[in-house]
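Lab meeting, action items carried over

1. Structure of the two-component assembly. Owner: GW. Status: complete.
Input record:
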Amino acid sequence: MLSVMRADVARVEDRLREEVRVDFPFVGEILQGLIEAGGKRLRPLLLLLAARPFNYVFERLLPAAVGVELLHTASLIHDDTVDKAMLRRGRPTLNSLFNTETVILLGDYIFARSAMMAAATQNPRVVQVFASSLAHICDGQLREIFTARELQQSIDDYRKRIFGKTASLFAGSAEMGAILGEANDEQIDALRRFGGHLGMAFQIVDDVLDLRESTDQIGKPAGLDLRQGTITLPTMLFFQLNRGNGRHAELVRRVVGGHDATDEDYATATAVIRESGALEHALEIAAEYVRNAKEELRAIPAGEGRDMLEVLADHSLSRTS
Amino acid sequence: MLSVMRADVARVEDRLREEVRVDFPFVGEILQGLIEAGGKRLRPLLLLLAARPFNYVFERLLPAAVGVELLHTASLIHDDTVDKAMLRRGRPTLNSLFNTETVILLGDYIFARSAMMAAATQNPRVVQVFASSLAHICDGQLREIFTARELQQSIDDYRKRIFGKTASLFAGSAEMGAILGEANDEQIDALRRFGGHLGMAFQIVDDVLDLRESTDQIGKPAGLDLRQGTITLPTMLFFQLNRGNGRHAELVRRVVGGHDATDEDYATATAVIRESGALEHALEIAAEYVRNAKEELRAIPAGEGRDMLEVLADHSLSRTS
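Predicted assembly:
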């Protein structure tokens, strides 16, 4: 169904590659590789699709679509420095190739390119959404750092944190697409909420995959959240399910606290969370977000555009990498 | 002469403080302190002054003026991480208080706030100048990293590097002010060049101060450039003056190369550069930039606004911190 979008997404990819061309030896190739390794271009796709039911003018959407993917890439680069991750999308991270200094500046450089793309839309409202998405992303990432290893946080804290970190750019992408497609204000708001719910579902599924899949499968180190003390929904639900009592809960608490945890401890902690039913419960909550997202589509005229948005929403639940 | 601007700069300061208000404990206070420690607000002042000979509407200029100072602050935060500087503007850097991860994200957060300010101008042309200034800054900082300890670079390489790192935001600030003041295109271009020349002079003076003054005087560690292998204009001129020959040149080469240099070596290298006349020569080049800057003011209507721009240009040469 989404294959009708393939050609336009390919044009976004071409432009992405052009935008990260730099004349520093070596760095240029690395950035190209990073862009080519890719990921699913979900944010540009969402942005394009949000305009599809309205006045879809690809050339007008292109800079914004490139901009959101660059913004996402820049934030991954900085996040990998933060996470000290050595692997992302199945490839070595910049962090494993350059010193921190260089990685920070390369991330900043990609931020700058993304801001230029936002500016190129010549649309003040789009620029405003873009800038506030960036602020939300930073806020979410800071929350993640400041709440690490903190067992007293609530599921609401988690929601707030992942809204910033992930859902805000999904919300912003959909909103920008709708604005550039000249939807009316009610439709723009509905699509913003659609994107936000979708982003929440996407991040919850990501947090489940981190505990459920292998490193090979997800292209980044599995179980990273536990190791970093990032307390995600499945872990919170695990504590709820066993009321925080017992030997298993004690182990997970110790592992998340980072106190003398061995590799075996991490493996056991992952296993007991998996076996508790917490992953299934988390996926139900993700499914609820997808249902809420689809509800928002009522404000959108029926047709192929709306159908594709539905397909995209369903897809966010069924992914395994 | 510039005192007539004091009230408006104070309003910029108030807004700056508001913009870095965050609800993370501790971080908020640190950011407030960082903003209060201040610096000279040269970029906002330049932006305001560039509008002064035209249609000066303070409320329209305010977001852009706050935006350029936030952009500058964000880039200092990341630069301090890069430099591993423990002192800036006479205060401990964020880098000395938080881990690298947090500092990167706080810098990103300030970037985001600055982008929101640019967006708040609602002026696509201003947003575009803003974004491209950011790209130039990153480019300049990357050049600085990639040319560190590289003795084969030319004075033209140096000019290109400091244009990116410093002068681009001066050029951009003046350009944004002129755009928002509704100057005509010729005047906007002239003011952009004025700002660029001013920024070049400013950075050259900075590079001289790094070698000439004490840590107390400049509020950051003196002699940092030599230690980091950043080859600045005075060092280049030093090599030119003695044709790269002799015991002194050999010492400076070794120190800049970073090979087993002791604290005493750094002190001696600083002394021989000072005594070579290279600092005076560098200041003459800075003075030439200031002259070129003032030439550009011919395109601007005579009056108090233009006079203040001239004073600002002269001031960039006479500063000692």
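2. GW to write a short summary for the group page. Key points so far: Chain B has one domain: 9-299. The domain at 9-299 of chain B is CATH 1.10.600.10 (Farnesyl Diphosphate Synthase).
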